[in-house]
Amino acid sequence: MAMFSGGQYDGRTVMRELTYRCSTGEEVTESEIWSRFDDGSWTPYSYDTEDGSEWVRAGDGSVIKLRPLR
């Protein structure tokens, strides 16, 4: 995942996170995704380099698609 896609931070620039729409209908930011990786709620599963979509495996074994909102 491309954490903080706003470019290099120079102290004056406000960094923007990408927001993703989940196949569950929820919208999550990159920070929220990483928090879920850290706490074990989700684990990385697959990534599509063409459109930036990602798939994660939830704790119950289901696979969730994350589509970046641009």
Write the layout of secondary structure elements.
Blueprint: E1 19-22, E2 27-29, H1 30-39, E3 42-47, E4 54-58, E5 63-69
Antiparallel strand pairs: 1-2, 1-5, 3-4, 4-5
Describe this structure in words.
- With 70 residues, the chain is mostly beta strands.
- It has one domain (19-69).
- Helices cover 14% and strands 36% of the residues.
- It has one helix and five strands, in the order ββαβββ.
- The chain has one helix spanning 30-39, and strands spanning 19-22, 27-29, 42-47, 54-58, 63-69.
- The chain has a five-stranded antiparallel β-sheet, with helices on one face.
- Strand 4 (54-58) and strand 5 form a beta hairpin.
- The longest helix is centred in the middle third of the chain and has 10 residues, at 30-39.
- The protein is globular.
- Residues 1-5 have low confidence and may be disordered.
- The chain-level mean pLDDT equals 85
Domains counted in the coordinates: how many?
Answer: 1
The percentage of residues in β strands lies in: 35-45%
Q: Give, in spatial order, the strands making up the sheet with the most strands.
A: 2-1-5-4-3
**How many individual β-strands?**
5
Shape: globular
Order of helices and strands: EEHEEE
Task: Tell me the structural class.
Answer: mainly beta
Distance between the termini: 14 Å
Helix count from the secondary structure assignment: 1
Relative helix content: 10-25%
Please give the largest β-sheet.
5 strands, antiparallel
Low-confidence stretches: 1-5
What Rg is obtained from the alpha carbons, in whole angstroms?
13 Å
